[in-house]
Specification:
Blueprint: E1 2-5, H1 10-20, E2 35-43, E3 46-54, E4 61-66, H2 73-89, E5 93-97
Antiparallel strand pairs: 1-4, 1-5, 2-3, 3-4
């Protein structure tokens, strides 16, 4: 999971979706929309499902990354570094990265 820092407006959301290859679901103006994009792709040699979520209570943003199977730790670190680079290239800051096991 990658927590994102700050508020996403329409322009920054569009840049982030484009950088990660996410489809465009969810509406910023709808207080109850939580899922704002998803894609299944290979990143840094690892197949992954990437989803962009907005928490309706905190208004915080996060990327959930699901990995099929049990990839090596070094592969996971490479994947997280690649996603972080794409996020930052879109002008969005990463607050934290946590790995769930």
């Amino acid at each position: 999971m990658i927590d994102l820092r700050g508020h996403l407006d329409g322009a920054s959301l569009g840049r982030l979706r484009a950088a990660l290859g996410l489809n465009g679901v969810g509406r910023l103006g709808d207080d109850w929309d939580e899922l704002f994009g998803e894609v299944y792709r290979t990143i840094a040699g690892v197949a992954a499902s990437v989803e962009l979520w907005r928490d309706v209570d905190s208004r915080g943003w996060r990327l959930d990354i699901e990995l099929p199977g049990d990839p090596d730790d070094s592969d996971v670190q490479d994947l997280l570094a690649a996603v972080r680079a794409e996020v930052e290239a879109a002008g969005v800051q990463v607050a934290s990265i946590a790995r769930r096991r």
